[in-house]
């Protein structure tokens, strides 16, 4: 990553940093097992998905259909109406488009993370 462009990229990288700090605050201290699955618009950005995988040191699965909100609503309606009888049937419908595996040490991102944290703290008092 080009560290000289970090301030310009801060909004772009924000989802990655939020994921990292969420895990560090809630999941890792409690030793919660996590299977990371991504969806939504941000999952269409391979750079962000790879960076997240590197930072959390976990595999991330990206579904073939990234718009899981509408699909989730359809699944719930199908379960309620009896079209599907259980969640296991729905799990079989999930298709994985890409899997992001950790490739870099998370420490390589430390300067960018520190800059993002400083910017976040400064923005709290606007």
Automatic annotation (TrEMBL):
Protein keywords: Kinase, Transferase
Keyword Transport: no
GO terms (BP aspect): glycerol metabolic process; glycerol-3-phosphate biosynthetic process; triglyceride metabolic process
Top-rank taxon, per record: Eukaryota
Boundaries of every Carbohydrate kinase FGGY C-terminal domain copy: 39-80
GO molecular function term, any single one: kinase activity
The keyword Acetylation is annotated on this UniProt entry: no
Listed Pfam families: FGGY_C
One of the record's GO cellular component terms: mitochondrion
Family named by the database record: Belongs to the FGGY kinase family.
Protein name (record): Carbohydrate kinase FGGY C-terminal domain-containing protein
Organism encoding this protein: Strix occidentalis caurina (northern spotted owl)
Organism lineage string: Eukaryota, Metazoa, Chordata, Craniata, Vertebrata
């Amino acid at each position: 990553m080009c560290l000289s462009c970090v301030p310009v990229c801060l909004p772009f990288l924000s989802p990655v940093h939020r994921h990292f700090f969420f895990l560090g605050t809630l999941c890792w201290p409690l030793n919660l097992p996590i299977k990371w699955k991504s969806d939504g618009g941000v999952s269409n950005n391979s750079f962000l998905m790879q960076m997240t995988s590197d930072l959390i040191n976990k595999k991330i699965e990206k579904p073939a259909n990234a718009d899981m909100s509408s699909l989730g609503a359809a699944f719930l309606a199908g379960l309620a109406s009896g079209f599907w009888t259980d969640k296991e049937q729905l799990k079989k419908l999930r298709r994985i488009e890409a899997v992001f595996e950790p490739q870099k040490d998370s420490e390589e991102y430390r300067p960018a993370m520190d800059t993002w944290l400083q910017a976040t703290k400064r923005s709290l008092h606007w």
